[in-house]
């Protein structure tokens, strides 16, 4: 049986959900892993529901869509409420933005970890635009899904040069927050 990790990133359009998924997928490819991904969003790109799904495997992927999320990264309360039940109860991780999501107590998920992504992006980086990358950094620190080098290479490919420095700072901040949250 191949080792498969299924990740869903969810929020609303304009939060960088699709970019976060693209960066994860690209970093997996950089590391030579088998990766599949898909994105979906509502009729309005900005403000409506949005999600990105990435599947990592150590062998070719037969079915490129999620069946049960091993990891759910949520950036809005609506996404959390609609999708927490689709996380693997034995091994699952829900990573959420504490300024956007109030988690439910007692749900059947192994771990729920909150990161103050929006709050810290505003305080440390001057705006909310990089909160997705702060969450990405925390995710990588907590899970070790891909290496910092691979995600940096993915960012160099997918993030415009004029925003790269800011996004690398957001990634570093997220990794620090992930270390603190993970203990």
Give an overview of the whole structure:
The protein contains 6 helices and 6 strands. It has 183 residues and is α/β, with parallel strands linked by helices. A 6-stranded mixed beta sheet has the order 2-3-1-4-5-6, with helices on both faces. Helix 4 packs across helix 6. The model has no long low-confidence stretch (mean pLDDT 91).
Outline of this structure?
Helices cover 42% and strands 22% of the residues.
What's the mean pLDDT score?
91
Look at the helices and sheets and give the structural class: alpha/beta
Count of individual helical segments = 6
Largest sheet: 6 strands, mixed
Order of helices and strands: EHEEEHEEHHHH
Strand order within the widest beta sheet: 2-3-1-4-5-6
Total count of strands:
6
What level of helicity do the residues show? 40-55%
Rough shape?
globular
For the termini, the CA-CA separation is: 31 Å
Radius of gyration: 15 Å
Low-confidence stretches: none
Descriptive tags:
alpha/beta; six-stranded mixed sheet; 22% strand; single chain
């Amino acid at each position: 049986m191949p080792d498969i990790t299924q990740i869903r990133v969810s929020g609303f359009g304009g939060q960088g959900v699709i970019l976060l998924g693209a960066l994860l997928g690209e970093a997996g490819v950089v590391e030579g892993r088998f990766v599949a991904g898909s994105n979906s969003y509502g009729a309005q790109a900005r403000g409506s529901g949005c999600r990105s799904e990435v599947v990592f495997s150590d062998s070719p992927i037969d079915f490129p869509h999620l069946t049960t999320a091993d990891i759910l990264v949520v950036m809005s309360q609506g996404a959390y409420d609609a999708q927490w039940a689709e996380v693997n109860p034995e091994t699952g991780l829900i990573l959420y933005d504490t300024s956007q999501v109030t988690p439910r107590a007692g749900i059947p998920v192994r771990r729920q970890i909150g990161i103050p992504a929006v709050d810290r992006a505003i305080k440390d980086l001057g705006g909310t635009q990089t909160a997705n990358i702060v969450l990405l950094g925390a995710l990588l620190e907590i899970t070790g899904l891909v290496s910092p080098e691979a995600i940096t290479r993915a960012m160099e490919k997918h993030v415009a040069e004029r925003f790269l420095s800011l996004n690398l700072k957001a990634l570093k901040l997220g990794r620090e927050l992930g270390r603190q949250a993970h203990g």
